[in-house]
Amino acid sequence: MSIFLNENSKVIVQGITGGEGTKHATKMLASGTNIVGGVNARKAGTTHTVGDTDVTVYGTVEEAMKETGADVSVLFVPPKFAKDAVIEAVDAQIGLAVVITEGIPVHDSAYFWAHASAKGNKTRIIGPNCPGIISPGKSNAGIIPANIAGPGKIGLVSKSGTLTYQMMYELREIGFSTAIGIGGDPVIGTTHIDALEAFEADPETEAIVMIGEIGGDAEERAADFIKANVTKPVAGYVAGFTAPEGKTMGHAGAIVSGSAGTAQAKKEALEAAGVKVGKTPSETAALMKEIVGSK
């Protein structure tokens, strides 16, 4: 099985006619994703060529859903238009909105997150500033290269896009039920805890890899959740062990204040919850291989 995305998912792309939308929709189609349409209000009623396929462009998410039965939207929309695009997806009550866009102002992300919550959380948001979600061999919604790893029994949730790719590559011989890049911005939709809860409930996910990074307290909260609710083995990695104290690194959410949010503090919290934490991504992959080999 997989979580949030499967072979039956019908995907639309908001911003399909732009350069990034076209490029990644082509790759998604090539990897077997069922792309049923695109959305661009200015080009409604036209078709847009994606790879060797002509995709119908609709004026709104609501129209695309009505005509195609779409239940997933992937957003390649410039930052200044992203808030309105996510709100449109939420108002249409599409099941999953994967927001790839980087550089969305935090107040915009906070606004559409709150809007989704006020509407009853009928739309799951992944991102923003993320690589998306892939259930190998079934569907791929985002920019994760589909040829890194095939289907298998590991669930992966990561704040970092590049570390998502590295971990998938290092564990490619075992494979993945689903891999999710949740993004590293201060305000995101789907959290580590959301993914951990879904992987725990998925009968075909046998073990979980969780990748975090310095800043905030998401990993500490995830550790508390694992301790109370997760029975499956978890291996973890926290990026940023060598980050200078008090310095903002990389992702917008990677802000350290005193000892709170440091890699060491997160590592200790996770280990206290029974998570095996590697000092490097490769060490974490080796720990997961040991876990799966012993099952």
Q: What overall geometry do the principal axes of the alpha carbons give?
A: globular
- Stated plainly, the CATH topology of the largest domain is called Rossmann fold
Global mean pLDDT: 94
CATH superfamily of the largest domain, by name, is Succinyl-CoA synthetase domains
Contiguous low-pLDDT stretches (5 residues minimum) are none
Helical amount: 25-40%
Strand-pairing-aware structural class: alpha/beta
Please report the number of helical segments.
9
Q: What's the number of structural domains?
A: 2
Tell me the fraction of residues in β-strands, as a range: 15-25%
Give the N-terminus to C-terminus distance in angstroms.
19 Å
Broad CATH class of the largest domain? Alpha Beta
CATH architecture of the largest domain: 3-Layer(aba) Sandwich
What is the gyration radius calculated from CA atoms?
19 Å
Please give the largest β-sheet: 7 strands, mixed
Structure summary, number of beta strands: 14
**Adjacency order of strands in the biggest sheet:** 3-4-2-1-5-6-7
Order of helices and strands: EHEEEHEHEHEEEEHEHEHEHEH
Give a quick precis of the structure.
The chain is an alpha/beta fold.
Question: What key attributes describe this structure?
Answer:
alpha/beta; 295 residues; seven-stranded mixed β-sheet; 2 domains; Rossmann fold; 34% helix; 23% strand
Write up what this structure looks like.
- GO terms for molecular function: nucleotide binding; succinate-CoA ligase (ADP-forming) activity; succinate-CoA ligase (GDP-forming) activity.
- One of its GO terms (biological process) is tricarboxylic acid cycle.
- With 295 residues, this protein is α/β, with parallel strands linked by helices.
- Helix content is 34%, strand content 23%.
- It has a seven-stranded mixed sheet. A seven-stranded mixed sheet has the order 9-8-11-10-12-13-14, with helices on both faces.
- The model has no long low-confidence stretch (mean pLDDT 94).
